[in-house]
Structures are given as structure tokens and as C-alpha cells.
Amino acid sequence: MRTFVRSAKRGTGPNYRKSGEIRSCPLLALLARDNRLVKYLRPGGLLLLAAVLLPGADSFRFVLLGDRTGETQPGIYARVWQEVARENPAFVVSVGDTIPGLRDDKAESEWMDAERVIAPYSAFLLYLAPGNHDVWSPWSESLFRKYSGHALHYSFDYMQAHFTILDNSRSDQFSPGELTFLEADLQAHAAQPLKFIVSHRPSWLVDVIMNQSDFALHRIAKKYGVQYVIAGHVHEMLHADLDGVSYTSLPSAGGGLRATKKYEDGWFFGYTVVEAGAKSAEFQVKELKAPYGSGRVSELKAWGKSGLVIATAEPERVSH
Predict the structure, then answer these.
(1) Better-predicted residue by pLDDT, 2 or 299
(2) What is the pLDDT of residue 56?
(3) Which structural domains are found in the chain, ordered by start?
(4) Is the peptide bond preceding residue 291 cis, with omega within 30 degrees of 0?
């Protein structure tokens, strides 16, 4: 059976590239197959060669997922993965709430249930943030570590991008220790030109909505050139830019829709495709297709602090 541990540890090192990109260039494919040739390249030489030979060699695609649980809606998460697989991402990052949780006696069986749902998609790397439905007790924390293959906070590099995963599973705010970890991690990876911070709860939400920039997370993000801050928890698609930092609350990937339940208010099931470039990224927010949605696709700039602000979202066209 596929486990989160195996998926989280494959290809997590810096500058890992998809095999399809290597196959697209005959010379690189030859180098990849023949260790006798590779050994003559200095460390990092194959990647430097790739940057020269491959157009867009500093770009890659990944997917962001919102909450699976929290008034879980049957069938949604499985459908999300079906559509995500068609995007062929290098990896997937989830903001957490992977299991229903909140009960120690059921937690491990719920992790096993989640594994079964995504077992057909074991080819895709999966990085999990801890949500409040995932971690609420010492036992649930140990299970998160076991099934995610990571500590409650951690980080990883992928090519030119750095991702810091933070833990606010048991608090609405980031603890002093969490902020200390964040700053030390960003300082250690300051050379990476593209930076993302991911957590479950949008602990920054009130400050960002009120356009208040004097809070600890934002000060650290600005200091180290973080471009994107991502969270979930509220199951609502929201977005705001503050002093050059982009803050995004992701739509639900299975957790219940609340309030008006209207698409234009940010209430829908979907996922977000990110095309990462050298120093910035382009986001496509994708609503699930029928019967769970209308398949509308929008850019990040179409969303604001209370929902859709630019009516440009249209159903995605399917090519035949």
C-alpha cells in the first residue's frame, strides 16, 4: 500500500527535475542514462547544462490543495485528485485537514482511509501541513509524523523555490517558537529567489483584511523576500496583496462549504495550479467540473478579500 511517508520523501532534494523533462532533450537523456558521462560533470553540472539546453528549465508546475475534511463532503477529495493528476504536477502541497480527526481512537484508521483514496496517485509527491483536524493531541501528533513523514514544521527546496511549512494546528496564531523556526529557515535559504510559506490556519487573515502590515509573520516575510503565503482552514477562496506579499486562502478540496455557498463569494470545491518561474509564479484557481462544480478557471488577481472581484472566470475548455 502506498503511504504518505514514501510519497513525501521521494525527490525532495534541491533541483529535482521531472523525468519527462530530461527525456525531452536527447543529450540530457544520454547523460542521465550513462553514469560514465555524468561523472565527468562537476557537481551541479547536469543541472547547469539543463538550464542552458532546456527552454524554461527554471520553471515547473505544482498543485495546492485546500482542506479535505471539516464537514467532509463525500466523493470530492477523490475527484480533486482525478483532476489534479491530469495536470501532471511535479508535486502537490496540501494545507492540511487530511483526516476528520479530533478522536484519538479513530485517528489511525482515518489516516489509512485517506491513504486508500490517494493510492492511485502515488506517482505524485505530496507534502502535508498539519491541520487542526490532523493534530490535537500527543497521539495525533505522532500519527501525523508517521503518515506525513515530516515534523510538524519543516521545509524543502525544489529547483529555485523554497517552501516553509508551518504548524498552527492547535492555535489561531503562530507561536513564538514557530516564528523563530520560520526566520531561521528563511535565513538559511536566503539565496533561493522564490519563496512560499504554507500553513493550515490563515493566522494572518484579519491583519491582511484590515491592511495592517505590522505583524510578525509579515515582517519576516518582507525581510527575506517571501512572495507567497498560503493557507486553508476557512474553505473559502480569498486573496490579497500586502506590501508585495501575496496572501491566499485556498478553496475547499472536500471540506464543507459555508455561508452563502456561492462561487462568487469564494465557496466552491477545487484546487490551484501554480506555474513557478525564476522569481515569480502564476496561479490558476480551478473549480471542479460537473457534477461538483462548473469547471470555472480564474487567475489569482480575480479574487479579493471577500470573493470574486474580476468576473473573468470561465469554464475550462477541453481539447479533443
Answers:
(1) 299
(2) 59
(3) 12-53 (no CATH), 59-315 (3.60.21.10)
(4) yes
